[in-house]
Design goal:
Elements: H1 2-19, H2 21-33, H3 43-51, H4 57-94, H5 102-115, H6 118-122, H7 129-132, H8 134-139, H9 144-169, H10 176-207
Helix pairs in contact: 1-2, 2-4, 3-4, 3-9, 4-9
């Protein structure tokens, strides 16, 4: 698997170096649909190229965001059209070819059920989840407008972060995995804290006399 990813990494570098921004869009779209291709191999390289003047920094961020949103929309559409039962049949039949299991799907569905629509934003910062989470958003019929908004905000933040780190590291951009591991763990902590605060705020609002749906509100 490591050798395969090294080959994929070489192909990604060659593609981006050859066709630039369209290559970033293409690879980032595929990365959302095919999780084993990590964005940590795409945008840091683009950031390193921006140091050399071969790419524009903000152009690379925009291309990364556009590609990620495109891939997320494809998965959202699959979930929307196929519904949960259809998605599970697809994963059972073809998931192994894109390294997605029913356990991955269950994990994404559990995150969506537990944290609601907020996970569409924060989930973009977490490997695997950032791909899978679009599917339950589709089959639960989440508003397409809110899905696009949260997805765009989350992916733009992720794209900005990775491209910037690649720019800072320059030719040492390949060290990105070592730098990003603590960040990924930290993102999980922040996500949990935000959800806890949100649930607490909703609970206090519900308990407030006269609040809509609260104990003293009129039917």
């Amino acid at each position: 698997m490591t050798h395969l990813m090294e080959q994929v990494g070489g192909w990604i570098e060659e593609l981006i170096a050859t066709i630039g921004y369209p290559g970033i869009v293409l690879v980032m779209a595929i990365e959302n649909i095919f999780p084993p291709i990590p964005s940590e191999m795409v945008l840091p390289f683009a950031g390193a190229l921006s140091v050399k003047g071969e790419l524009n920094f903000w152009g690379a961020v925009a291309a990364g965001t556009a590609g990620s949103v495109l891939g997320a929309v494809v998965l959202y559409a699959i979930g929307y059209v196929a519904r949960e039962a259809g998605v599970r049949r697809l994963v059972a039949a073809y998931g192994k070819y894109v390294f997605i299991s029913e356990q991955d799907l269950d994990r994404g569905a559990a995150w969506f059920e537990r944290y609601g629509e907020a996970v569409i934003f924060f989930g973009r910062l977490i490997p695997i989840i950032r791909s899978i989470i679009s599917v339950p958003a589709g089959y639960t019929r989440m508003s397409a407008g809110r899905f696009l908004l949260y997805t765009t905000l989350g992916t733009s933040l992720w794209s900005l972060l990775l491209t910037y780190v690649g720019r800072v590291l320059g030719e040492n951009w390949v060290d990105i995995r070592g730098y990003m591991k603590p960040y990924e763990n930290g993102t999980l902590v922040v996500l949990v804290l935000v959800v806890v605060v949100f649930i607490g705020w909703r609970a206090l609002r519900w308990r407030r006399p006269g609040a809509a749906g609260g104990p003293d509100s009129e039917a």
